[in-house]
Amino acid sequence: MYRKFNSKQIVIWISALVIGMLLGGMGMAWIKVMADFIATVYTRLFQFLAVPTIALAVASTLASLGSREETGRIFRRTLVYTLLTTLTAAVVGLLLFIVVQPESLPVGMVAEGGENVPGDLKDVSYYDHFLKVVPNNIIAPFLEGNVLSVLLLSAAVGIALAKMPDSAGKRTVMDGISGLQEVLFVLIRALIWALPLGIVAYAAQLSAELSAGMMAESIGRYVAVIVGGNVLQFVLVLPLFLLSRGLNPLRTFRCMSPAVLMAFFTKSSAATLPVTMQCAEERMGVDGRVSRFVLPICTTINMNGCAAFILVTSLFVMQNGGIALTPLTMAVCVLIAVVSAIGNAGVPMGCYFLTLSLMSGMNMPVGIMGIILPVYTVIDMMETAENVWSDSCVCAMVDKDLTIRS
């Protein structure tokens, strides 16, 4: 059931945000160490809950819905809304790139930036990234936190359970999955209750990074395009999608604000998934069969912010590499950005890694990625918040569509 808006809780979150920003801005070493420790603990705890949440949610939903027409409708609508919002995000980024026209960087600066490119990411190909999605054993995806592999495994288990004839064994497995889900949601509520402490730590980290001068003036126009695209998608495009389905954007955001806030600081939509599901079901009142099927899928494939980043960054790097950005080239880049974003795993640095892999494969000047790296922390925060907000919007729209049909 939907819980009424708790203004006291939001006041606590905002207060924690302000306190954290003030502490981080003080520049004291011990505060930074403490903030890093607390933030890491919170992120690890949410990541710990994220993988089993995805596995249990998808498996139980597919097992309960089975091969019924309702399952197909949910999946089709999820896929359509995901593609529409992701494509729109890429197009918005393209339009801003054309209007703002970021300038090419000096050759010497690009060469120096190459020293900052993470070697372990540069040496891994885009092909290898997708090959790892296919698991070679049932344990590895859970140990590695490979979200796409976990999604495939859980979907297979759910479909297998749906196809099984009703028996004592099947009921035992389903009861076990249901019981584990209840345990997870108790743990999730406990973490949300303690979230203000995590917000203080995350905000202190952000404030310290901003105080250190993270925004490089030399790539100001590029940053403006990325930030502007995220803001437009967040405050204009996605609310228009909601309005087109008869949903109130303000109410939807109000219900999902804890998840969006959590995503902003953790920089991981997968780690935020437990909070997103809890908010969708208990604050927004979404049917559990919808939220536990749609949100894990969206966490894996619905990457609005990532699509915009891959597109704009690819165009920026290609421009610096002397590639003529013709309308056909830009259109192809939009398609590549959308497909690449769908393959992102919802983890920190995911978009950066995908773009680096693409540009390395095209022999582009990847030194620019080293120049971007210092500002990517803030960009990643905005993108992840946008991704979770988009996941929430898709979930709300699918739930509304099914409600109308029923």
Structure write-up:
With 406 residues, the chain is mainly α. Helix content is 80%, strand content 0%. It is built from 18 helices and no strands. It starts with 6 loop residues before the first helix and ends with a helix.
Please summarize what this structure is:
The chain is an all-alpha fold and 406 residues long.
Give structural attributes.
406 residues, mainly alpha, 18 helices, disordered N terminus
Structural class: mainly alpha
Gross morphology is: globular
Distance linking N and C termini: 19 Å
How many strands appear in the DSSP assignment? 0
Oligomer: single chain
Please give the count of helices: 18
**Poorly predicted sequence stretches spanning 5 or more consecutive residues:** 1-5
Write the layout of secondary structure elements.
Elements: H1 7-25, H2 29-65, H3 69-100, H4 107-113, H5 119-122, H6 126-131, H7 140-144, H8 147-163, H9 168-193, H10 195-211, H11 220-244, H12 249-266, H13 269-282, H14 288-301, H15 304-320, H16 327-342, H17 350-361, H18 367-405
